[in-house]
Amino acid sequence: MVSSSSQPPLRFKVDAPLSSPFPSSLLPRTHMPVEIKIRKGEIVDKALRRLKKKVDREGIIKDARAKRGYEKPCERRRRKGKVKAFNSYLRKKWEHK
Fold first, then answer.
1. Run of H or E residues at 62
2. pTM for this structure?
3. Alpha-carbon distance 48 to 34, whole Å?
4. Tens-digit pLDDT profile for residues 53-94
5. For 31, which of 5, 15, 55, 93 could close a Cys bridge (C-beta 3.0–4.6 Å)?
6. Is the model's pLDDT at 1 over the cut of 60?
7. DSSP secondary-structure letter at 18?
8. Element (H or E) spanning 81, and its range?
């Protein structure tokens, strides 16, 4: 990476919803940027990896996919039931070992 003293450091930004104890449907759609500053002499690939990890921890991609379209209440219950059944299956599987 070529750096000159006159250029500011590179930054990657992603909009992330603010976390709150209230349901997201009751809150206005406000976003907080997730920002990664590239350190001096750092490879861009490494900085992108740090950004991906931060975005994953914030749950931005998961939230965007969930809000891609309307999910009917019966579909939501069915999806949550499948997750619950799978988790109980795993718990039972690892209990007996």
1. helix 60-66
2. 0.48
3. 12
4. 998 888 888 888 888 888 899 999 999 999 999 999 999 998
5. 15
6. no
7. P
8. helix 73-95
